[in-house]
Each structure stands twice: as C-alpha cells, then as structure tokens.
# Entry
Amino acid sequence: MTLLTRLIETVLLLGVLLFCLFGFLATFEPLDRTTQWLWRVIYVLVGIASLIGVLRLLGKRRATKTPPGRDRPDRR
# Structure
C-alpha cells in the first residue's frame, strides 16, 4: 500500500472518528433514555472501529525481505 493511499485512508477514518465524537456528545441532549443509549453505543462502536483502523494503518511497516536460509535480517 502506498504512502498516499494510507494517508488518505487515515484522514477519512479520522473524519469518521471526529463525527462519532460529535454524535456521542450530541446524545446528551434531551432524548428518550433508550434512544440516547442506542445512539451512544452505535457511536462508540463505530468510533472504536475507526480508531483501530487508524492505528493499524499507521502501524504498518514495509516487510523486509530476508535472504533464503535466514530467520531474521542481521542487525548491526
């Protein structure tokens, strides 16, 4: 995956995360109690999923190719 693709996906997921944060805060307005909790759960689940996606995208590193017959590359 190219750096540009990862950057675009990260920005989009951060947008979803911010939307979920705003939506979660909006559930503190006067609503029916069950409706408040339903939307809070939805916003939290989607927010956590997008946060995990961002962390996975930022945590990916390029795989290093190891020469045949070696378990790991030499560290010097």
In short: The chain is about 65% helix and 0% strand. Helices lie at 3-26, 33-59. The two ends are 28 Å apart (CA to CA).
